[in-house]
Amino acid sequence: MSKIVADGIVIEHFSLAPMIKRLTLGAPAIARAAQPGQFVHVRVGEGYHPLLRRPLSIAEVDREVGNITVIYRIVGQGTALLASLPPGEFVDCMGPLGNGFDLNTERPLLVGGGMGLAPLLFLAKALCPKPVTALMGGRTKEELWWRNVFLGVCRSIHVTTDDGSMGRKGFTVNLLPELLENCKYDRIYACGPLRMMEGVARLARDKGIPCQISFEDHMACGVGACLSCTCAGTDGKRRKVCSDGPVFWAEEVLEL
Amino acid sequence: MMLAVDIAGIKMKTPVMTASGTFGSGPEYADFVDLNKIGAIVVKGTTLTPRDGNRGRRIAETPAGMLNCIGLENPGVDEFVSRILPGLAAYDVPIIVNIAGATTDEFAELARRLSVPGVAGLELNISCPNVKEGGIAFGTDCASAAAVVAAVRRNTALPVITKLSPNVTDIVSIARAAEDAGSDAVSLINTLLGMSIDIRRWRPELGNVLGGLSGPAIKPVALRMVWQVARAVKCPVIGLGGIMTANDAIEFLLAGASAVAVGTANFVNPRASVEIAEGIRDYLVERGIKHVSELVGRVNENI
Ligand SMILES: Cc1cc2nc3c(=O)[nH]c(=O)nc-3n(C[C@H](O)[C@H](O)[C@H](O)COP(=O)(O)OP(=O)(O)OC[C@H]3O[C@@H](n4cnc5c(N)ncnc54)[C@H](O)[C@@H]3O)c2cc1C
Ligand SMILES: Cc1cc2nc3c(=O)[nH]c(=O)nc-3n(C[C@H](O)[C@H](O)[C@H](O)COP(=O)(O)O)c2cc1C
Ligand code: FES
After folding, report:
1. What is the pLDDT of residues A155-191, one digit of tens each?
2. A113 and A89: one domain?
3. Can you give the pTM of this predicted structure?
4. Of B21, B57, B215, which is closest to A226 when you measure between CB atoms?
5. Mutation test of ligand 2: which of B214, B221, B273 has the most ligand atoms closer than 8 Å to its C-beta?
6. Can you tell me the distance from the alpha carbon of B208 to that of B60, in angstroms, rounded to the nearest whole number?
7. Is the Cβ pair A52, B65 closer than 8 Å?
8. Count of domains in chain A?
9. Which DSSP symbol is given to B80?
10. Is A103 part of any domain?
11. CATH number of the domain at B5-295, please?
């Protein structure tokens, strides 16, 4: 399960939605070792600007072929540079980094918002054929192209939008109590905005359902060496998001 | 053997060390690079009591560089000695501990507690730009720099390296003060104080407003300072600041550094420290130079 640095070859690279790209890289050693929730730390260019690597969640893995897939939003210079790479080019990747999700569940509920759905996709696929329920939220229906990506992987998919243009109007945490009434989930996995994860974790705690969340922070090293990304644990000890996380048990890092 | 150097009694297989704060205590990078092939590992700045570091965002990218305001987060010296240091014995590489005190007495106490087997040397961080007390205040004034070095000197037999701040008008005088007070070597440079602003929110990008600039952007400044200091002191100089490649490292050697350290480059290429050493060896072989020491300070200023 060791981490490596390797050149992944671009196999496929296309738009899933405006400003959203899906990139598949041939990187057999990383594909073999990757666990849902882990990420790759990607160098987006050869030069010195931008200098640092970019962390991207592993969204899909094909162990047999040796491919990993990331799904990312173009938000700045680094992701814009990455977006310009055609098939056949190489991408320098460190990975798989961080600790992934605990897969010990029979009846999982996945709750995600925005790009937080990327690691949950890998998780959903890894949990199959267990019955996976997904709850996803977005501002408008334009953000919920994710639904198509999760179709076929999940037993059921629930959707909320802030403006009601698709699914239930409101936030995922508004719909969540209803889902928890209707079905006995034994594990909740959440990834998305901090406020959302806090809301989900609170409801999970009230129901006594173990909950894991995945954090994000600005990262330099990605391996626990620079302390750019630390957060406070509820036990008073510090945690490194990159190497102790990005996946944590909710009560480990959230004051609920 | 053409790369082996002895810096103030610290025997290194190569002149390429890793810079404090950029390489953890080493094992963080063990999956990527053979730690036994590194000249020396300088561990993260260590303080007397644990520190949580600064709040808010801690890094920001700038052209060819980065700003950081970690704020010396570390588990404290006792935790380092009891829990981290024993694990490092598995590696055949000198461990140099970077220490940061809020007072001269704290520096002295840190030196005492770290004078244990497994520690090859101490680097005095009198140049951290990211903490309120101590830190850079010691490194911008000759008398306080000398006082820190002297206090540490009295408390340890270990080799002492003083890490100099570039945020001064005359780095040479600080280097001389450190040497005169008993420092066995000097290392330079620490980060340059900088800032960046998010123009969408009209706010500084960093939680601490200011941060230390590192990476290739600072290399010319670092090189200039190494050259100035190396001509002025007799003790060995460890050069760092923006070294990304073997060619960069060779520039520092020619400017007068007896060894170099690699910092930010580790984030970009986790194998940088070893690849740079290999690159220096190739350079020596190509030119028929027998030992790396033959490069040190050999830049020829006659035009
Ligand atoms: C563990 C982890 C996994 C991630 N997985 C994904 C993923 O699967 N898909 C995806 O689209 N993005 C993901 N991200 C975020 C992604 O790393 C950033 O969007 C990317 O680095 C931005 O690079 P850039 O050069 O394009 O933007 P920049 O110009 O660097 O930044 C653009 C804006 O995004 C903000 N930003 C950049 N990085 C972060 C961060 N880490 N946290 C919060 N804000 C940030 C900046 O402050 C700035 O406002 C992940 C981040 C982490 C830490
Ligand atoms: C994230 C980060 C943390 C650092 N922490 C320390 C530290 O604890 N003590 C110290 O003396 N220098 C620290 N430094 C400074 C580096 O050791 C080095 O002097 C500086 O980054 C210049 O070298 P570079 O350009 O190769 O990175 C830190 C630098 C970075 C980027
Ligand atoms: S990114 Fe360096 S410690 Fe997490």
Report:
1. 999 999 999 999 999 999 999 999 999 989 999 999 9
2. no
3. 0.97
4. B21
5. B214
6. 11
7. no
8. 2
9. I
10. no
11. 3.20.20.70
